[in-house]
Amino acid sequence: MAHTSPINVEDYRQLAKKRLPRMVFDYLDGGAEDEKGLEHNRTVFDNVRLKPQRLVDVSQRSLSTKLFGSTLSMPLIIAPTGLNGVLWPKGDIALAKSAAKAGIPFVLSTASNSSIEEVASQCDGELWFQLYVVHRTLAESMVARALKAGYTTLVLTTDVSVNGYRERDIKNGFKIPFNYTPRVLLDGMRHPRWSFDVLKHGMPSLKNFETSAAQDIEVQAALMSRQMDASFDWEALKRLRDIWPHRLIVKGLTDARDAQKCYQLGIDGVILSNHGGRQLDTCVSPLESLGEVTEACPFPVLIDSGFRRGSDVVKALAMGASAVLLGRAALYGLSAAGEAGVDDVLRLIKEDIDRTMAQVGCASIHHLTRDFIKSDNAGLSPSLQKIGA
Predict the structure, then answer these.
(1) Does 191 show up as a binding residue in the annotation?
(2) What residues bind glyoxylate, as annotated (predicted)?
(3) Which residues, at least 6 apart from 259, have a Cβ–Cβ distance to it below 8 Å?
(4) Is 225 annotated as a binding residue?
(5) Is pLDDT above 80 for 224?
């Protein structure tokens, strides 16, 4: 009898594609321009091969790790992603609850469909808040709300000074609220499970912007045009460091020099990211920058963009990453089956990490080093070329 349950992230991607209207799936799955960045984020993993060590006792394996003083059950974090309520009713809360059950942090996006306060009141896991600076006054208001609500970590996203040219979204006319054209209505009819959820729960909105601080005329103008504050610079980061008393992480870097500047400013860590290929299509993969950043910076270096399997995670950890953030991988599970789907994706990746650790002869993720990997020098950055040469 054939196995019908999902056995990997790609299976959940296919289930998500079946349940979601094309316009919504394309928003989740798509990238910028020709989507070469999406492809590159995946193929770069093929250029790093695992190099097993034999005759090692791996009968007992440990995936737990310490990050910023907290104990994680495994080196994973649910990445900040926007408009999750379009994928599943109260999608942000489902993701946060799944992360809490798994013993890993959840990062709430500024563009969430559940508010900062709502997520904090319904979830008991470790919560981080990701900040988009649309308008300085509004950003400071959100930072104060996250602090009051008990979020432990602030994550500043730096790679959206302008919006990426996402051609799938442009062709589909994707925006919130939806423009209910005949084509959109017909697509909804072809996906009745998703449409029923929308009819039952209503079309989600950007809850974090439904405050008095967002009623300012300048703020409204910025929101209506979906423009970020492109003037946010190192001086602005210094001010943010001054007003946020807890951990501050900068997300969206791919250059070791930027990471070093963050360290010098007292930032607690960085997230190497190219926004999952959704911003600059021909951007380097974060994995290509990982080696030189970890060599240059003595603080936690996290990474996202393109992770689908436990072996991907093991490769990044061996190259010096402290943890990996899962974006689309978790969202495919959410889109297919809600909280239960996220639970299962996390289970599958955790088991894959554990199985890979056993296969390479490493009993603890703390023992992973570059001795466990070898890179293919063809077409790689200098930081990858010198690994395992």
Answers:
(1) no
(2) 27, 132, 166, 275, 278
(3) 253, 270, 272, 293, 296, 297, 301
(4) no
(5) no
